[in-house]
Amino acid sequence: MTLDMLLRATELITEDMTTALRADGLTQARAKALWGVAARAPLTQRELADALEVTPRNVTTLVDALEEAGFVARGSHPDDRRAIWVDLTKKGRTAVARMEKAADQLAEQLFGGLSPEELAAATRALASVAEHFTA
Amino acid sequence: MTLDMLLRATELITEDMTTALRADGLTQARAKALWGVAARAPLTQRELADALEVTPRNVTTLVDALEEAGFVARGSHPDDRRAIWVDLTKKGRTAVARMEKAADQLAEQLFGGLSPEELAAATRALASVAEHFTA
DNA sequence: TATTGTTATACTCTATAACTATA
DNA sequence: TATAGTTATAGAGTATAACAATA
């Protein structure tokens, strides 16, 4: 029952996020890629592929789309002429900041009504789920 | 933070389920469709499309794959010669039973170690998420 | 030889639009 | 006219394999 509810809750949240991202011209996969760039920029496409756990070929398409939309820019790697430097543009930084803010607001709406004890217990429960898989 | 953990937990669970489904020759989308058939069989493709909230065209492909793999069978609708009756095969029933059992076992592994208080708090947190979106 | 990123190709999931057979 | 399901077409996300440029 709790498993069903967990999956259902995420489905609803993901739907909501997908709608919000569409307003910025982003999909889930592209937002995740943009997020990955933001966390490590500047980085090579190979590094981004490893971070996202997808193939380099997949990253080519994702970066193509993000570059086309103006969120990231490709440039020369200073030391390795095979590699491509990917960095955030100003538009990309703005979009990431907006995503962070939206995530915070959503979290407040979703969990703001819980007591500190409940929130702590729920967090522990979710942590134990993650532990089960990473252990 | 809790939002991150919720999304992360579901990501891990989904990964795990995807691997398990692959052993049965099923993808997430096909398993969901099979599940939809199991809950209502026999039913028309139109009814399945409504239940899954996808287009009739999408259902054609999903049922094609499930039929090809022997999980469901198409048949004539008794009253409407336009419509197609979809029903589970014996293999389909077996697969659904196995999926149910696997879900129960996973839930036990994930949540069996929690105290009743933690489990109750987690359930309330998840319920409040669902309420936020359905209200 | 090994690595970076690309082109070529393919499969899955999804959608809209046009069409056929039936209601 | 309206509905059920299909063919035609398209976009997105993913993968493997072969290749060019560079290390």
UniProtKB/TrEMBL annotation, chains A, B:
Identify the species of origin: Allokutzneria oryzae
Q: Which residues form the HTH marR-type domain?
A: 1-131
**InterPro entries xref list:** HTH_MarR-typ, MarR/SlyA-like, WH-like_DNA-bd_sf, WH_DNA-bd_sf
Pfam families xref list: MarR
Q: This chain belongs to which protein, by name?
A: MarR family winged helix-turn-helix transcriptional regulator
